[in-house]
Amino acid sequence: MSKRVALGIDIGSVTTKVVFIDENDEIIEGLYIRTKGNPIDTIKAGMIEAYNVISSKYGDIEVIAVGTTGSGRQLAGVVVGADIIKNEISAHAYAAIHEVPDVSTIFEIGGQDSKIIFIRNGAVTDFAMNTVCAAGTGSFLDHQAERIGIGIEKFGEYALRATNPVRIAGRCTVFAESDMIHKQQMGATPEDIIAGLAESLVRNYLNNLARGKELLPKFVFQGGVSENIGIVKAFENAVGAEVIVPKNNKLMGAWGVAMLAKREIEITGQKTNFKGFKVTELEHKTRVFYCDGCANNCEVYEVIENGETIAYWGDRCGKWSNRLTSKVRRTERADRREEISEK
């Protein structure tokens, strides 16, 4: 008998996460890979790699549900044939609540953006996102690790060894980097500089995203940056409480949307829209053009599969996207309405 699994894809600007979960919502295979500016090929490579692993363990597998999230969720959804396309807030919150049922505050920091999610009685009550300033994100930390000559995986260890963390200006990547260079030139140790950077990034995060908000435990920290034990410690010092890093901290968005997709199929009783793993063999191209149908001059995105257009989005009036009707596109529109109502 085939192994029944659900697939979740979280595609971001820097990394792509692919997970397969079993009927008990446990992750049986998860990948965390660099997007490298080519999301479609990254999705395909991740799907095949994960499939090869789980098929070698379980034999035949049956994908019963597929969900996508992240900044590239629409693109991923139309390429693979998603059953739901959800925003990051919903996906991350669902996974965090599943892992820590009494969570109240979720810190999430990814490669290019950061977000904070407030949970009360098992439901999202508020959130804030920072997609403008890169200070404190994974990309900024990677850059600083390369500049200092210390592997990013060792950043946290260095921070914990600090004796006198220096104060780094963290409101902006330019100011933070300039301040770090100045502290180096003045003779501060790498440990104290890195610890100061961790404290600065957490201070910047809380000032930008949590200003005026009530921070209540339990605290959960997820996303790629949660791997950095120095940042975790800085968060704990800032909030005065334990900050939980879940076991699937880097995969929470993909895990959450996989579970949501599985619930959707179970509730509706419909068959999945998943195109099958053969989709990895198809040719996909994207195109961007500007519609001159009205003064909005919308930037429209088109996805072409084996020479046939399978999706449009970006048009405000629906002139282009309404040409193609499918469950996925209806879900996309519902997801946009959900995002608007949340804000």
What key attributes describe this structure?
343 residues; alpha/beta; single chain; five-stranded mixed sheet; 10 helices
Provide a descriptive summary of the structure in words.
With 343 residues, the protein is α/β, with parallel strands linked by helices. The chain contains ten helices and 13 strands. The protein has helices at residues 39-58, 73-80, 88-99, 138-148, 155-160, 173-185, 190-209, 229-239, 252-268, 327-342, and strands at residues 3-11, 15-21, 27-34, 61-69, 84-85, 105-109, 114-120, 123-130, 219-222, 243-244, 284-290, 299-305, 308-313. Strands 3-2-1-4-5 form a five-stranded mixed beta sheet, with helices on both faces. A hairpin with a 2-residue loop joins strand 7 and strand 8. Helix 3 (88-99) crosses helix 9, helix 6 runs antiparallel to helix 7 and helix 7 crosses helix 8. The chain starts with a strand and ends with a helix. The model is unreliable at 326-334 (pLDDT under 50).
Number of helices: 10
- Look at the structure and give the mean pLDDT: 87
Radius of gyration: 21 Å
Order of helices and strands: EEEHEHEHEEEHHHHEHEHEEEH
Fraction of residues in β-strands: 15-25%
Fold topology:
Layout: E1 3-11, E2 15-21, E3 27-34, H1 39-58, E4 61-69, H2 73-80, E5 84-85, H3 88-99, E6 105-109, E7 114-120, E8 123-130, H4 138-148, H5 155-160, H6 173-185, H7 190-209, E9 219-222, H8 229-239, E10 243-244, H9 252-268, E11 284-290, E12 299-305, E13 308-313, H10 327-342
Parallel strand pairs: 1-4, 4-5, 6-9, 9-10
Antiparallel strand pairs: 1-2, 2-3, 6-7, 7-8, 11-12, 12-13
Helix pairs in contact: 3-9, 6-7, 7-8
